[in-house]
Amino acid sequence: MEAQWAGSLLFGSNADYLETLYEAYLRAPDSVDARWRAYFEQLPQVNGHTRETAHSAIRAAFVQHGRSLRPATVITQDHESKQLRVQKLIAAYRSLGHTCADIDPLQLYQPPALEELTLEYYGLDAADLDTRFRTASLTDDSHDTLREIIERLQETYCGPVGAEYMHIASMPKKRWLQQQLESSRARVELDRDQRLYLLQRLTAAEALERHLHSKYIGQKRFSLEGGEGLIPLLDTLIEKAAAEGIRETVIGMAHRGRLNVLINIMGKSPQELFHEFEGLHDDKLRAGDVKYHLGFSSDRLTAAGPIHLALAFNPSHLEIVGPVVEGSVRARQDRRGDREGREVMPIVIHGDAAFAGQGVVMETLNMSQTRGFATKGTVHIVVNNQIGFTTSMSADARSSQYCTDIAKMIGAPILHVNGDHPEALVFVTRLALDYRMRYGEDVIIDLVCYRRHGHNEADEPRATQPVMYHRIQELPTTRERYAAALAKSGLIEPDTGERMLEEARARLESGPPLVSMSDIHTHADPAHTANWAPYYNADPNSECDTAVPLDRLQSLAARLQVIPEGFELQGRVAKIMEDRRKMAAGALPMDWGFAEIMAYATLVTEGHPVRLCGQDTGRGTFFHRHAVLHNQLRREAYVPLRQLDPEQADFLVIDSLLSEEAVLAFEYGYATASPEALVIWEAQFGDFANGAQVVIDQFISSGEEKWGRLCGLTLLLPHGYEGQGAEHSSARLERFLQLCANDNMQVCYPTTPAQVFHMLRRQILRRLRKPLIVMSPKSLLRHKQAVSSLDDLTGGSFQEVIQETDALVSKEVGTVVLCSGRVYYDLLERRRNDERHDLAILRIEQLYPFPERELKQALRRYTNAERFVWCQEEPINQGAWISVRDKLQRVIGGERRLDCVARPEAAAPAVGYFELHTRQLHDLLNAVFV
């Protein structure tokens, strides 16, 4: 055993240590371990004296003996200490190697010299380079020299791929990524055909840009030049996704490179693009949009079968398309029953400045693993031009090291890659997709490249970035570099690259798309395709039967009352449920919450999915809905609307994260991909929609005119002046009405429970798919006058104009007051108190499209009326007045006088002092009842 123990340590890398130990033995034998002392005493002696043995002979004996033994685990204290230091060095490369990676094609910024990646930092030096250390976690071999270890770490972490993954909390995920990176040294092995295909894809990308640059000089196109690697990256991603079983992907991207993606990935005809450059347009669209905002869809044939590609339309608000894509993907996944995201996948392409600078990126990342918004992993690609318009990335665009650092908040792996290394692009793309498919989470590819021209082709970048653009001017293109590398390796002839380029440009002139037509299918799978055909050209004035038979209403209401055994409700909630039982029996007037819940119940049992989300939708901000019930005895929730019928459509209610912009954009995306579903976003207060104004302006109100995109999204925006201050009074009705034109959307202000019942049902039952903006109530939710009966649900429909409800003698009416919303109940109470029988009050419940015909018919009975008043509780420069005054005047006739009574002109939506609020209301009513 002693000899075996000593023999395991006798190899060359321990020679220095053993010599030191032997010298200690010569000076004082008792100072060394007894086993070593016994071993040294058996060594060859010189002149009969062990202590006088020559060191050279001892060393020779050790070396000779070590050569006959396989290196084994070193257990000496000094070597074990160095082993720990080597492990720390390996860990440092895994954590910090990306900071020294060769990821910048411009090489303008020298990577920092990190002490943590030096031998000296760990008490190691050149003498240790040939010492072997345990490396089981790094390689398949059990031992490598320190020199070999560093070489492997440099190739893996400091080459054209810079991998950030040590911030991930999950150890299995880190180990998986580590194994994928280190086992391959972050390289991919490609055969000759694969390399030639890569070159062909780069050639197609460059050919298109050169052609456009020469043919349409000075026209904006936001070229991909400098980032042509995006095309083979996307090509690899789509091919591999199809092989993994993905059947649909929705792509979102801003301007940069969009035209190239349309032609070289999506298969759009170059001639169609050229027509757009020449000013031709689609006459079917009322407004249309610039060419680099347009979307497209196609079915591409891959080696694994067809895959549907959809490029989302996007305005100039860059990152806002991200959550729209996520919503569209979630709708497609729901339609397929694809709960694990194995069939539909989102791809979002970002700009570096926008990824770091736009807050909606953080909001969207934050949604990625939540219950109502998860799409089981997005592949994010950052086209990193290293500049934002004219803003320097190094000093002014962000406070973090990388533009992608925001993604660390969700533990996403970040793969930085040099855009001038096409094979490295293939490696990171395959790795990214493998991670997404394995873990169902987001992953980031940071494609570090550059922008060969300015922000657009009419811009002069040298005015602000002279050093950067002097360097760019000197650089060969990615295609030229790769073609030269292939020629040097003997895979192609020296002139092959240029010949391929000329052939690609000739194909552009001749007509066929650069993605072969044989690769593009036009026959999508109808089983999983949303059919929008029935909804085009629908009449905005069409009506439908929204009434529901009494027996069915009562049956559904009874099922909604069934609570699981042992499920204890909170006291106020139990009282609401008991009241709803009485409402269903006709023993109690119907309130808003009951009518709304019954609308959802009837729809889902008729086969129409309902998706309702917002920051407090389960309960309702004002404690009125209670679509989700909570057990008071244990952490358990119950949703009665999901338990009505085994064959019912889905009902999903989500208390969303504290986001308006990303969540509303998500719901818009969902609604544009799901025409059969009632999709609702509810603001906690109506003014919260301010945070999502870009979605309202750029998508909801104008998406049909610009892009032909239909959308039936419903917005519930609590609105009403209750003396609660500026921030929680107004949903800014005037803004929505200002955006209304050409029957683009509906704006309603219902005042009774029956109205909301019929309005919600009408939104999905008729063929019209237009956004519905609802000024929804706050105090009216429990107002004693704002009630309905069962008869109002079993008969009737949504009334765009509600006639006077009190029994007035029409000929005695001299004043007609027209209004919308909760101010009606203030007017009604004042009239009854004053016993004014000469004043009629009409409610306009739909403000757009304006119901001129219905209002004209309602006014016919008041032949003796001489005074007409529009009354609103909003300030006179806000609310509906500015939008409706001309329409009202047209209806009542130009010879009749029309007055407006409103709060005084104001810059803020409402006052913050309750006493002032009350006085304003008093003055408003006095002005009506003169």
TrEMBL record:
Keyword Oxidoreductase applies: yes
UniProt GO MF annotations: oxoglutarate dehydrogenase (succinyl-transferring) activity; thiamine pyrophosphate binding
Recorded catalytic activity of this chain's protein: N(6)-[(R)-lipoyl]-L-lysyl-[protein] + 2-oxoglutarate + H(+) = N(6)-[(R)-S(8)-succinyldihydrolipoyl]-L-lysyl-[protein] + CO2
E.C. number: 1.2.4.2
Function recorded in the entry: E1 component of the 2-oxoglutarate dehydrogenase (OGDH) complex which catalyzes the decarboxylation of 2-oxoglutarate, the first step in the conversion of 2-oxoglutarate to succinyl-CoA and CO(2).
Keyword Ribosomal protein: no
GO BP terms in the entry: glycolytic process; tricarboxylic acid cycle
InterPro entries noted in UniProt: 2-oxogl_dehyd_N (IPR032106), 2oxoglutarate_DH_E1 (IPR011603), DH_E1 (IPR001017), KGD_C_sf (IPR042179), ODO-1/KGD_C (IPR031717), THDP-binding (IPR029061), Transketolase-like_Pyr-bd (IPR005475)
Cofactor(s) required for function per UniProt: thiamine diphosphate
Pfam families according to UniProt: 2-oxogl_dehyd_N, E1_dh, OxoGdeHyase_C, Transket_pyr
Entry keywords, A to Z: Glycolysis, Oxidoreductase, Thiamine pyrophosphate
A cellular-component GO term for this protein: oxoglutarate dehydrogenase complex
Quaternary structure annotation from Swiss-Prot or TrEMBL: Homodimer. Part of the 2-oxoglutarate dehydrogenase (OGDH) complex composed of E1 (2-oxoglutarate dehydrogenase), E2 (dihydrolipoamide succinyltransferase) and E3 (dihydrolipoamide dehydrogenase); the complex contains multiple copies of the three enzymatic components (E1, E2 and E3).
Transketolase-like pyrimidine-binding domain segment(s): 590-783
Protein name: 2-oxoglutarate dehydrogenase E1 component
